[in-house]
Design goal:
This protein is α/β, with parallel strands linked by helices. It is built from ten helices and nine strands. Helix content is 38%, strand content 17%. The strands form two sheets. Strands 5-4-1-6-7-9-8 form a seven-stranded mixed β-sheet, with helices on both faces. A two-stranded antiparallel sheet has the order 2-3. The longest helix has 17 residues.
């Protein structure tokens, strides 16, 4: 598979603003924030990379969010106790307003330190522009390029310890196999990397092809939830390759923190 092939137009049509803060985001972001905390226990810097960063900052009072109402079924349906995600959420809202919701890039930038480095890939023109505006600083590089190609080109980065979030839209069926192929290539180039793969759980269960294709040791964590429209996702899944010590406990805690939205 040609990992450097430009994104097709269906993939460029996806905009996460309609889904920000939904139950899948809650699952993904609780685990991500916990992983970043584990990886920064020591003073040595880390590299954080994303294949599909999105705009990094969302407004839950915007028309897109209000149209779907998905945030009311996710982040707005829980009262988070003190935890890394709450720290990132509170920081974002102090800076951008009470309706702000941080995407994964802003969560990472908020929780990481001066010695850490971020490399964010986003090809959608509008999303890329918004991402640069919200997150550009001395520790963060925003790249307008295909995420799979970009991360592979930069791997292994400095610092060598790090985390890669793989989070495509999966609007194109072939992305499941593409994620598997990308992960194998990435670990071959950067064996130290922790890789966090998110995938939707849909009635067609196409994610099983992704899982079955992985020839690496991994942790798998899936949760289910109910969306009011009764259509689309029935749950959210994560795969962690080279998970740091303590990650299994963090996966269990994510469900506890997000009650009653997420369930095993």
């Amino acid at each position: 598979m040609n990992m450097g092939k430009p994104l097709s137009s269906p993939m460029l049509s996806y905009q996460h603003a309609y889904h920000a803060g939904n139950p899948a985001d809650l699952h993904k972001h609780l685990v991500l924030a916990g992983l970043l905390t584990l990886l920064t226990r020591k003073t040595r810097g880390i590299s954080y990379m994303e294949t599909h960063a999105g705009r990094g900052l969302y407004d839950l009072s915007a028309p897109e969010s209000l149209k779907t109402g998905e945030a009311t079924e996710g982040i707005e349906a829980v009262s988070l106790p003190d935890c890394p995600l709450k720290t990132a959420l509170d920081t974002a809202r102090k800076r951008f307003g009470a309706a702000a919701y941080p995407g994964s890039p802003l969560i990472a930038q908020t929780l990481l330190r001066k010695q850490d480095r971020l490399h964010l890939m986003e090809l959608h023109p509008a999303e890329y522009g918004a991402l640069r505006k919200a997150l550009r600083n001395a520790t963060t590089a925003v790249h307008k390029r295909d995420g799979f190609e970009g991360v592979l080109a930069l791997a292994p980065p400095r610092p060598r310890k790090g985390l890669v979030l793989v989070d495509p839209s999966y609007e194109v069926k072939t992305e499941y196999a593409q994620v598997t192929d990308f992960t194998h290539k990435l670990i071959a180039k950067w064996p130290e990397a922790t890789v966090m793969i998110w995938y939707p759980i849909l009635p067609a269960r196409r994610h099983e092809a992704l899982i079955n294709g992985l020839k690496l040791k991994y942790l798998r964590h899936e949760v289910s939830f109910d969306l009011k429209d009764g259509e689309g996702m029935t749950g959210s899944g994560l795969v962690l390759v080279n998970a740091p010590y303590g990650a299994e406990k963090g996966l269990a805690e994510a469900v506890e923190l997000a009650q009653p939205v997420l369930r095993l």
